[in-house]
Amino acid sequence: MNNSSNLLARSAHWELFSHPTINESRTTPYKSKVPEGTFSNDTSRVVIHYPYKNPLSVQAHRVIASLKEFSALQENWDSYGAERISNAVIADAVSLVKKLDALRQEVYFVAPGPNGELSLELENKTTNRSLEILVYPDKQWKYLRFEAKDFISQGSMTIQDIRSHWYWLNGR
Length: 172
Hints:
alpha+beta; 2 domains; 5-stranded antiparallel β-sheet; 3-stranded antiparallel β-sheet; 8 strands; globular; disordered N terminus
């Protein structure tokens, strides 16, 4: 084992990932003696260092950029009296995208709504299911479930409910 691998194995700030989901509970940054983005790979494990927070996928960055663009919409942006999308709604939607990205779930479509809400759509082509999440200004979120393009159910939800919806979407 070379010096770099030894340093990686001894570092208290390295994590061994054996499951595709990522623990999001880490909130405080820490310092490391190992340069950011380095890793050790032997035949039995891969050890990866994330110094501050979990990295986002390229798709998540694209979706977040799209969501932030909606802040430029003014009142009556659709010429039918649509409400402006507030920064709080955009922040809630960004948080949702980050949680979904940690579950390795891509958001494939986002759109503003006439009542100041944002719509985020998810799909799983294997299970032939899709999920639409509506993020409203009053924190009263809604979901709509579809299977083979047929409406299945709808209801209220919070960001804490996302894992159960993800399980349904992925047939678990």
